[in-house]
Amino acid sequence: MSITRIFLTVLSAATLLVHGARAITADELARYFGVSWWTTKIDLPPEAFTAEIFHIVDGAVGERLIEGMPAWSKKPESGLSVLLGVQDGKYKLVVAYGGGVTMTTASQVAVFDQTLGISLPEKIGAGDFVFFGKPKVNATEARSDDVRSFSQGFLLRVRTVAPTAAEEARALRCLANAKQLGLACRLFAQDHGGRFSTDVNELVPDYVIDTSLFGSPLAPTLKDFCYELLGGVDSDEPSQMLVRGLFTTSDGRRSVVYVNGWGALEWR
Fold this sequence. Notes:
By secondary structure, the chain is an alpha+beta fold.
């Protein structure tokens, strides 16, 4: 059975009941087929990163074996899985994104004579993570964040990516909507003793006629209201936030509007 088919079997049979016995876990099933299995979650916004696998040679990052794409990371909360097996005396790797995309490579890397598997953290951000290799030093001294500890091995690299021009345009439209809401809040305050509204229903229809600005082009699906009205009074400090977008760009920026009417895309 090919490692790809093994991976699909393990993935679909994460809990398999046999004759009423206890459930067989995905890890146990992977060990049965003679493969190694790692899972983690990427603590980054959707489509803001790509996952890649590199070969470690003589304590340095070598050839890239698997290249990812930001479009495959739409559901980082669903996790990322890496499977490593042997085929014809060489390692074969599988990387699966939670959104359903699976990448496989048959490497030319021969099986190591000594190996060490290192667990991935439950949740990771951008960075390099050694998960399997032949340590140069005592196994207890090998570190997952130090490729120099390994003469050979494999490394998972999570790399952030910059927003595309299309996403930047959507972000600017989102900010324009937020500024219009900020203006509506300030007009409302003029008629209500300086109090800013926290309820969008108070703004319609006297202060907001076009309710389409309640939506955000950054929202992955159609939402009724994509902003947070933070309230307060018009005597608050100008730097006090008035409106905040609920959705971010791939690099983590969101629409923010302040009491003085100034707005921007910020990492807030």
